[in-house]
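Tokens in:
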């Protein structure tokens, strides 16, 4: 199955997303901040990323921007408590395939993962 990176500074949020991913039978790795996320993406080469928007060191948007500059093409779902349309739009412009609000609904995330990985 696929390797999925979960990026969130809150352990509870990471665990909630991890449970959804594990139910689909995928493996997970985790990062607590933007810098750690970039390192894991480069070293571990995950198949999919669940990326919180408000994380330390580099925000989710900054992570997307760096990945775009380095021509990474990896399906990324932004996860945020921010409900502003401008924030969501910026994430999509920077390459996220979707922006989900917290708390994440399992059926929404499952559908995005399955569609992105074509499994």
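Residues out:
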């Amino acid at each position: 199955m696929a390797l999925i990176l979960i990026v969130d500074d809150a352990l509870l949020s990471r665990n909630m997303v991890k449970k959804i991913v594990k139910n689909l039978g995928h493996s997970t790795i985790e990062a607590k901040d933007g810098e750690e996320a970039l390192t894991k993406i480069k070293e571990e080469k995950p198949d999919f990323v669940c990326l919180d928007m408000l994380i330390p060191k580099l925000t989710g948007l900054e992570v997307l921007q760096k990945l775009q500059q380095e021509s990474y093409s990896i399906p990324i779902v932004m996860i945020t408590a921010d409900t502003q349309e401008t924030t969501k739009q910026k994430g999509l412009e920077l390459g996220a395939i979707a922006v989900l609000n917290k708390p994440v609904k399992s059926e929404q995330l499952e559908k995005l993962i399955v569609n992105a990985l074509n499994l």
